[in-house]
Specification:
The protein has 406 residues and is an alpha+beta fold. It has 10 helices and 18 strands. The chain has 2 domains: 336 residues, DD-peptidase/beta-lactamase superfamily (Beta-lactamase, 3-Layer(aba) Sandwich), CATH 3.40.710.10; 59 residues. The strands form 5 sheets. The protein has a 6-stranded antiparallel beta sheet, sandwiched between helices. Strands 14-15-18-16-17 form a 5-stranded antiparallel beta sheet, with no helix packed on it. Strands 3-5-4 form a 3-stranded antiparallel beta sheet, covered by helices on one side.
Length: 406
């Protein structure tokens, strides 16, 4: 991933608050557009926002009472840290991602049959293709009774948090350490990240996320300290890991792939993950708009932490598209920002079929159509035929309406 040598990138000290900066005007960024970006970020309930260029801070802003020393949760953006540590553990001979998960968790970690369970590997957990049924009331339940067979591995992409959380147990069992100990000894203490894992979620200062992004952008080398040597694993982690959802690697989200699946929504969106962003972006995306973006071609790391910008959605939201409209317009040489919000989530599974993300209301179908209504977990609520769909009786949403025009 590295587009610059370690000597060209700046790395802050592992202790203290020193972090060199770059004047955005030196990059040709317009101050009025920076102001517009920061106003937008603040208006969408952020707590912290950081942009690094070549490792140096170009933009750093905290909102309300939040400060540089405040801690916040990464939500599922922390999955990319676990992916990194899986690679570290494999490099050190503690595990093999091609081995059955039962090698490390023991037989009976699911309620599948012995043969069904033996077919599930660590790689399937990294790629969200275990075949375990993710349609449970508690997405975080890792008890065997919650982990039921649905499909063969590699036949369905299903964003299921429980099988991800068990990767932390895989590392703990393979290393004979707690996951927190493994994280601290092999990553946090060597990069100055700090941070604490609570119930599988990482809490840290915002600059810790920026540090991790800088480390990955530099191929796992922190200044002169090589944290992970297996760059082939890192590169595979940030490339399509399967064909079911080409915009997903080893727990990383990938832009520029032409189509993607959203968590819990059984529709293919026939567009790039973030159409307003550079195609080479890779990202750690967490619930309520916790964001870590890496842009190798521009040597940028972007961090956003805070409350949800709008809806409470896992991973991807309309905020990604809107935010990158502002960031992409920062250079004075680019055109101004479009007024189009870009939040109408729409995908396609056939030429006359489309999927719309809607909030509670009566939805016009623009003519006679058959429809199916789903919640964001992918559960079908109702179906029918008509000119409109009344979703007001199903709670707060949002919902997905699959429409096939007559």
């Amino acid at each position: 991933m590295s587009t610059a040598s370690a000597q060209e990138r700046y790395f802050p000290p592992n202790t203290g608050s020193t972090w060199e900066t770059t004047d955005p005007q030196e990059l040709g960024w317009c101050q009025d557009r920076i102001d517009s970006l920061l106003n937008f970020v603040g208006a969408t309930h952020a707590k912290a926002f950081i942009i690094l260029k070549g490792g140096k801070i170009v933009v750093e802003k905290y909102y309300d009472s939040f400060t540089v020393d405040s801690a916040w949760y990464w939500a599922s953006a922390g999955k990319v840290v676990t992916a990194f540590l899986i690679g570290h553990a494999q490099e050190n001979g503690l595990l093999n991602i091609s081995a059955p998960t039962s090698t490390y968790l023991g037989e009976g970690w699911t309620s599948c049959t012995k043969d069904q369970e033996a077919a599930i590997t660590v790689r399937h957990q990294l790629t969200m293709t275990t075949g375990i049924d993710g349609r449970t009331p508690d997405d975080n339940c890792t008890e065997p009774s919650c982990l039921k067979y649905r499909d063969e591995p590699d036949t369905r992409w299903d964003y299921y948090n429980a099988t991800y959380l068990l990767l932390q147990d895989v590392i703990a069992k393979a290393s004979n350490q707690t996951y927190q100990q493994y994280y601290f000894r092999n990553l946090a203490s060597r990069t100055g990240m700090g941070g604490l894992w609570i119930d599988g979620v990482l809490y840290s200062k915002p600059r810790a996320m920026a540090r991790f992004g800088l480390l990955v952008l530099n191929d796992g080398v922190w200044n002169s300290d090589t944290i992970i040597r297996d760059t082939a694993y890192l590169h595979r982690a940030m490339r399509p890991s399967q064909t079911l959802n080409p915009s997903y690697g080893y727990l990383w989200w990938l832009n520029g792939q032409g189509s993607y699946l959203r968590p819990g929504i059984p529709f293919v969106y026939s567009t790039d993950l973030v159409p307003t962003a550079p195609k080479d972006i890779v990202a750690g995306l967490g619930k309520n708009d916790q964001k870590l973006y890496l842009i190798p071609s521009q040597d940028l790391v972007v961090v956003r932490l805070g409350n949800p910008a709008s809806e409470e959605l896992p991973a991807l939201s309309g905020f990604d598209t809107d935010l990158w409209r502002y960031i992409s317009a920062l250079p004075c040489s680019t055109s101004s920002i479009s007024n189009d919000s870009g939040q109408g989530a729409q995908g396609a599974t056939a030429p006359n079929r489309r999927a719309l993300l809607v909030t509670p209301d009566v939805v016009s179908l623009n003519g006679l159509a058959s429809y199916r209504l789903y919640d964001v977990a992918g559960r079908m609520l109702t179906s029918g035929e008509g000119m409109e769909v009344d979703v007001t009786c199903y709670g707060y949403g949002p919902f997905i309406v699959e429409i096939e025009q007559k």
